[in-house]
Amino acid sequence: MEILHKDVKSIKGIGEAKAKLMAKLGIYLLEDLLYFYPRGYKDKSIITDIDKLQNEETYTIRAIVEGRLKESRSRNGMLFTKCRVKDSTGCASLVWFNNRYIKNSLVSDLEYFFHGKVKRVGKEIVLESPEFEQASAGGSLNLNRIVPYYSLTEGLSQKELRKAVRSVIEAIYEKSADVFPEEFRKLYSLAEINFSFNNIHFPESIYNLKLAERRFKFEELFMLQSGLIHIKRMNHESKKGIRFLNSDKVYDFMKSLPFSLTNAQQRVIGEIFEDMDNDNIMNRLVQGDVGSGKTIVAFLALYKCVLSGYQGIMMAPTEILAEQHYLSFCQLMGHTGLRAGMLKGSMTARQKQKVYEQIKSGELDVVIGTHALIQEGVEFCRLGLAITDEQHRFGVRQRAMLSAKGENPDMLVMTATPIPRTLSLILYGDLDISVIDEMPPGRKKVDTYYIDSSKKDRMFNFIKKELDAGRQAYIVCPLVEESEKLELSSAVEYRASLQEKYFKDYKVGLLHGKMKASEKNEVMESFRVNEAKIMVATTVIEVGVNIPNATIMVIENAERFGLAQLHQLRGRVGRGSSQSYCILVSDADNEVARERLSYMTKTENGFDIAEKDLVLRGGGEILGKRQHGLPELKIADIVQDAELLKLSRKAVEYLYDNNKLEEPEYSRMKKILDQRFSRVLEEITLN
Ligand code: ADP
Ligand code: MG
Description:
- The chain is of the alpha/beta class.
- Helix content is 40%, strand content 19%.
- The chain is built from 23 helices and 20 strands.
- The strands form four sheets. It has a seven-stranded parallel beta sheet with strand order 10-11-9-12-13-8-14, with helices on both faces.
- Helix 6 (193-201) packs across helix 7 (206-237), helix 7 (206-237) crosses helix 23 and helix 19 (591-602) runs antiparallel to helix 20 (606-617).
- The longest helix has 32 residues, at 206-237.
- The protein is globular and about 100 Å long.
- Residues 294-295, 389, 416, 544 line the site of magnesium ion (MG).
């Protein structure tokens, strides 16, 4: 058995009890211990002479214990343990409080390292409660070095963990085989594995520590990405997809659209059609800011699919959105002769049954709907293309269920959440990515203001003026965190107070998450036909709603939203030809909140906002939620280590493109990657 796969109990001094505690930290095997990276370090390597010690500073000294340790008690019963130490430059006193163990742990005339803070008492130099460790020839673990600090669990101390790690490092000394062959390490300037284990835990210098850190960060990102890229290549290579027919008719049709497509739209359509033309299975993500015109791109792909004799579906996360897509489809694609239908959860069993039959018989070419599309009863006759809108609401598993409705149908995923490129490499590492990075012409900038609540009266007057000019407004409710129930009642109250106090003569509607789909539809409809002038809403309007006559978006308690979310909300206005406004109301007085909100007033570019959000919130938090089914990153950070992320991706591609894994030097890497892939695949199928 490989030594690294031995149980931690094989370490001297680790018994059943300690092993249990280690298991809590996810440490079972010696290998786990080596990959249990410190959460931080303290440089205690600098030894200071006693005569150089300054008051109130923290130092490490190397000194000999002189004479016996003395214990005494204060009047209130506190135990003091004192002793004197000396080095070649002078003497100091050490003192501990209420620590019964000190007396038997220090031996006079022996030399120790002591680390603690200096408190001068008159002329006397005193170190209070210093840590200590005997100065021995073997090199120290806890002092006189750059010391590692680990995340602990109760009952396990830093010292114990350090000792355990050290003994593993000694046991494998210079014997670990490196997953990365020398050639590969040279290519990407990576430190060797034995060196890296030593220096990530017990760094010989800060420089060596950086080298070790870089190697493990790279390794982590490399492993993650090779899994994703492997899946991607498998999709491309092993399974045969559908070869759709030529696109001439689609291109003709494009000319008849009421607008001409932007360059970005054309480029992305080109990328999609190229995927559809060959017999690979398309797995493509289309990213585009709100309002960039993703919907028509999806429709054109559906058209091409149907022209080739297949059925297409488009799945949206909410009924409101599905309906909206269906309406736009009828409007924009009506005269193509495509037969489109709708499927959603709120339909009666009979209605659904009818659509099921139409889908199965092939009577319908295109079906637009919600999750209802992936229910069991739905059987297609020839599903060729499945599109999901707003992917972030669908999991990998749902994507797989959708795909299973046909025989290797092409998949297209649309998302309006701009994701910084580095992040999308990870989150969507198994997809090809297209970006619509251009807005249709004539879009006016949404003027964004950041106000505090003292200016709300003025704001309401402004809204009235817009309403009188025939426009409409959204107002996103103040958020109540405590409970959903409270949130609901506060939304209801808030609407009522607006209606009675400020907007007596206008109809104010209310949309919230607890409403039945049919109620939501009613409210939306009354807003769509411009009967309701104001729509008070919780964040359910976040996704995709398109009502061009709405020109004002007010967001209360704006500080409680993420930047990306604010951007999404703001994207609900500015969809028509009139000037639109977004008003962020917040009384937050902390610096970061203010910075975030004023950033919103300065930029409209969703990708910039996403970058900023990522920097402000940190990559850890975003990936940390684990909602994406990806393994947690232990040492790398996708924001701070963006460069390494790119480099590791290049490395993976280099390996595949040059068939490197087939070379004998790479056999170890191949073995380890194969093991990981089967695990990743298992996880995805189990999900
Ligand atoms: P999103 O990318 O947010 O889904 P939509 O597809 O809903 O955006 O498009 C927003 C609006 O812009 C729609 O009314 C759509 O008809 C319109 N639109 C799309 N492409 C263009 C274009 N090239 N020129 C003008 N208007 C366009
Ligand atoms: Mg959309």
